[in-house]
Design goal:
The complex is a heterodimer.
Chain A: E1 2-8, E2 11-16, E3 28-36, H1 39-45, E4 56-57, E5 61-69, E6 81-84, H2 94-97, E7 125-128, E8 136-137, H3 144-147, H4 153-162, E9 171-175, H5 179-190, E10 195-200, H6 203-211, E11 215-218, H7 224-231, E12 239-242, H8 253-263, H9 272-280, E13 286-289, H10 302-307, E14 311-314, H11 319-331, E15 341-346, H12 350-358, E16 366-370
Parallel strand pairs in A: 9-10, 9-12, 10-11, 12-13, 13-14, 15-16
Antiparallel strand pairs in A: 1-2, 1-4, 3-5, 3-7, 3-16, 5-6, 6-8
Helix pairs in contact in A: 4-5, 4-11, 7-9
Chain B: H1 3-18, H2 29-47, H3 52-71, H4 75-80, H5 89-95, E1 101-109, H6 113-121, H7 126-129, E2 133-138, E3 143-149, E4 155-166, E5 170-175, E6 182-191, E7 198-207, H8 212-220, H9 222-242
Antiparallel strand pairs in B: 1-7, 2-3, 3-4, 4-5, 5-6, 6-7
Helix pairs in contact in B: 2-3
The chains are: A alpha/beta, B alpha+beta.
Chain lengths: ~375, ~260
């Protein structure tokens, strides 16, 4: 079968690989009908995540049709249409039982070999571990594109907003208007934020955010924290969501400092967005981190965070917790996640698609791949 | 406390205090020479210093290093319970557990102690979670035969005996004296607070085969062994909680260095 495989920094290739087999009793094999490229795939693409191996099959956002199931899987049958959460979770340990699915003791998200090393879903077929605990059956009548993002970016944006514990009158600022940021913006509105302020520099992303009713700040043209203070009557946002993570981009002195440090391998992460979030957030507010961090950050203003009594909420998304509630919102029409899709490409062109997504060419926000 | 701990504690006391009246030689021959030389050099340097404070500090350090080299005793090594001197064989025997490599690992398993104990006590289950164990054959109520494959592919086999068995609490065992790697171990099961299952703690002590060099190497690789034992416990946890061990062996991947399709 065909699969999109990682070979090194900025080097992914479409390869012919063997079809996956059932390896454990709780496995299922799924024929992928739709998959996509996630911003966190770009961290792998940019070589920011250690312990990747040449030939690894990429992809953690996918859905498809069940082909076969292991002896211990009783809730799925061949022919079922399923969305598969990116977090691989056993469903039985201390963490899974407390709905902290992404912290499962007995598995990992599989993101690089350090975290499990499971072969991914940018392929024609994929093996799904713990298939009795993760995948969500999709009722007929919903298109693949409507439900695909339940696998990651939709719940990730939703959890980022939920973590803000939004109260009446709250202003929520969102750094990064990629797909996760877009869903965070809409989720914050859904959770009754008074106002959402979106920060990015890509025109396509900013106009998508504006379409959801957000006020926007183009950080390449304006000073973010000054503008935020001004927009919130000097209070600062009640909650700040970082949907950027370790590869932040900026031209401010601290951003250039971070770039120099990471280039010289003196630091692993560039927390430019996170620093601004801490600086901007009002006293007693919440900083919610959805963007991925991988290692050590430098010059994080913890003193300011302490003085202001900020609450930090972060971590990989507990996808399984949100599957059913969000599916319901999709079914009743409150959420239509398809608006983020800007490009539809056959799986064969995955390497070109990575390059386009990386450089945000052609107004690229989200690419879906069809095997 | 298990018989194993009791024994090693007793031996440690004997070796450490009773048999040594004067300062113990705990610095190796080469290091003693180096210590003396550097110490004398520092003393000489101290004499040529103009600033009094610097000269005083240098002379103190020089004097200490010279004394350390001359007597072969290092207070720092003593405080850290270590040293660079090779133990005499008799000293080693007296010290007993002192030269053994000991490994500890712990895990909390979300199953009741009786169940975890029961699974562990069925020794035939060992190959399902112990990476290097190929097979276990139960001989009678307390004795069993174990077959292991080392990372280098060597097959080892030995007999072991359960020396203490408290259902739901503890299993302690030791290998028969004939074993190439003589070892003893205990696994304890304790209820975790708040209904979190069972805290499993594994302690293994073994006497690495071969020379002093072999022991040093074994100690160096002790942490690697500890990691393997921790992995074994993790697999035990996976089996009992998730019903299977996580694996990616046999999954598709692109053979490296293949040109794009």
């Amino acid at each position: 079968m065909k699969a999109n495989c990682w070979f090194g920094k900025h080097d992914v290739r479409l390869c012919e690989v063997p079809e996956p087999q059932l390896l454990s009793p709780r496995d299922a094999i799924v024929r992928v009908t739709l998959t996509s490229i996630c911003g966190s795939d770009l961290h792998l693409y940019d070589g920011h995540v250690p312990s990747m191996q040449e030939g690894d099959v990429l992809g953690h956002e996918f859905m498809g049709e069940v082909v076969s199931v292991g002896s211990a899987v009783e809730n799925l049958r061949p022919g079922d249409r399923v969305v598969v959460p990116f977090a691989i979770s056993c469903g039985r340990c201390f963490y899974c039982r407390r709905e902290l699915w992404s912290l499962c003791d007995n598995s990992n998200p599989g993101y690089s070999h350090m975290l499990g090393g499971y072969a991914g879903g940018q392929a024609e077929m994929v093996r799904v571990p713990f298939a009795d605990a993760g995948p969500l059956k999709i009722p007929a009548g919903l298109r693949d594109e409507q439900v695909l993002f339940l696998s990651d970016v939709l719940p990730t944006g939703y959890m980022a907003a939920e973590n803000c514990q939004i109260q009446q009158g709250d202003v929520v600022a969102v750094w990064g208007c990629g797909p996760v940021g877009q869903f965070a913006i809409r989720s914050a509105r859904l959770l009754r934020a008074e106002r959402v302020i979106a920060i990015d520099r890509e025109p396509a992303r900013l106009s998508m955010a504006a379409a959801a009713g957000a006020d926007v700040i183009d950080f390449s043209a304006e000073h973010v924290t000054e503008r935020l203070t001004e927009m919130t009557g000097g209070r600062g946002p009640d909650a700040c969501i970082d949907c950027v993570g370790l590869e932040a981009y900026g031209r401010s002195p601290d951003a250039l400092y971070d770039r120099a440090r990471t280039t010289l391998m003196l630091a692993t992460d560039r927390p430019t967005a996170l620093r601004q979030a801490v600086k901007a957030c009002r006293k007693g507010g919440v900083v919610s981190i959805a963007g991925v961090y991988g290692g050590f950050v430098d010059k994080l203003p913890l003193g300011a965070a302490f003085a202001k009594g900020l609450t930090f909420k972060m971590g990989q998304t507990h996808v399984q917790r949100y599957l059913r509630p969000l599916l319901k919102r999709i079914e009743d029409g409150t959420i239509d996640p398809t608006f983020v899709i800007t490009h539809r490409v056959p799986l064969e062109f995955a390497p070109e698609a990575f390059d386009m997504f990386k450089h945000k060419r052609d107004g690229c926000v989200k690419i879906v791949l069809t095997p | 406390m298990t018989p194993i701990e009791d024994a090693s504690d007793a031996e440690d006391v004997g070796a450490g205090d009773a048999f040594h009246a004067g300062p113990e030689v705990n610095v190796g021959g080469f290091e003693r020479g180096a210590s003396l030389t550097v110490g004398m050099a520092l003393l000489a340097l101290a004499l040529s210093q103009r600033r009094a404070r610097g000269a005083f500090a240098l002379s103190l350090l020089g004097a200490y290093l010279s004394w350390r080299g001359a007597t072969g005793h290092c207070a720092l090594y003593e405080a850290l319970d270590t040293g660079s001197a090779e133990d005499e064989e008799e000293g080693r025997l007296a010290a007993g557990a002192h030269d053994d490599v000991s490994i500890e690992a712990a895990a909390t398993i979300a199953r009741p102690p009786e169940e975890v104990y029961g699974f562990f006590r069925r020794l035939e289950n060992a190959p399902r979670f112990m990476a290097f164990i190929e097979a276990v054959q139960v001989i009678d109520a307390t004795r069993s035969r174990w077959v292991a494959r080392t990372p280098t592919g060597q097959i080892l086999d030995w007999k072991a005996e359960i020396i203490e068995d408290r259902p739901g609490e503890l299993i302690a065992w030791r290998s028969d004296p004939g074993a190439l790697v003589h070892h003893a171990g205990a696994v304890r099961f304790r209820p975790a607070p708040g209904g979190r299952g069972t805290e499993v703690r594994l302690d293994v002590e073994y006497d690495p085969p071969g020379s002093a060099l072999g022991r040093t190497v074994a100690r160096l690789f002790g942490s690697a062994t500890e990691y393997r034992v921790e992995e074994d416990l993790r697999r035990l946890k996976q089996l009992l909680e998730a019903g299977e061990t996580a694996t990616t062996r046999g999954q598709p991947r692109c053979p490296a260095s293949v040109p794009p399709a």
